[in-house]
Amino acid sequence: MPLPLTIAAEALGLQHRLRKTLATLPLSYRAPADSAAASIMFIAGTSDWAARATAAVEAGARGVIIADPGITDPDAILTLADRANQAGAVVELAERYAGDPTLLRHRADLIQHLAATSTILISQVGDFATPANAALDMVRTAHALGQPLSLTHIWQASHAVVVRGTAGEKLFEAIATSGTGGGGQRIDALGFGRTLRFSLRGDGSARPSDLRIGNAKGERKLSPVYESVDRAAWLRVHAALDRGEPDGLALRQFAADITMIQAL
Q: What is the DSSP string of 124-178?
């Protein structure tokens, strides 16, 4: 893939968000004179985002980033994965919780420590489009932490949604509450002599989240990553294009997560 890479936002609402990120990216990224000629597209993860991303790939985009992807037709996501693979295009998901740069930096270490726990609890506060989208946010965080989820129940109230199931042999329970103040996701993993406590900001800023691991000897705070979810996604696209290794596994897992939620 020759450099520089030209990037453009699909819609006006994303342009400000793109400009903020573009100012922090390597010089190999630049905005094109004509958005139709962009080699990488930034697409809103609302409604039919998978179909719009497929259209961008078929129009020649070498990379697509989905901003805050939500519930959509899982079959359309699988079609996107197939089309991207055929075209050698890269599709990245800029997820506000599951894509947290601090969480991803320490993912291998966290998975190892989670093996010593028996219960995973997630509490999420913030706006969500639908209860299914709130459930998806929490499921995606668990999968980002390498947990094989099997959901058994989803309950909906006027301003909250509760999800319950198992993560391998662990109990998994998550609750999302609609609200505007103090938003974010808190994850508590509990085990005999081992606790993990994560506070994920979910606000898209470069301010780092707080991840801590505790045992009988005390608590250890993991080193923070001062990077936004969007910037991390752009850099992953750049690296994948340089390697020439598009990978549709993340899209297929996202489609499977939606299918699991919709089945309940």
A: EES--SSHHHHHHHHHHHHHHTT--EEEEEEEE-SSEEEEEEEETTEEEEEEEE-
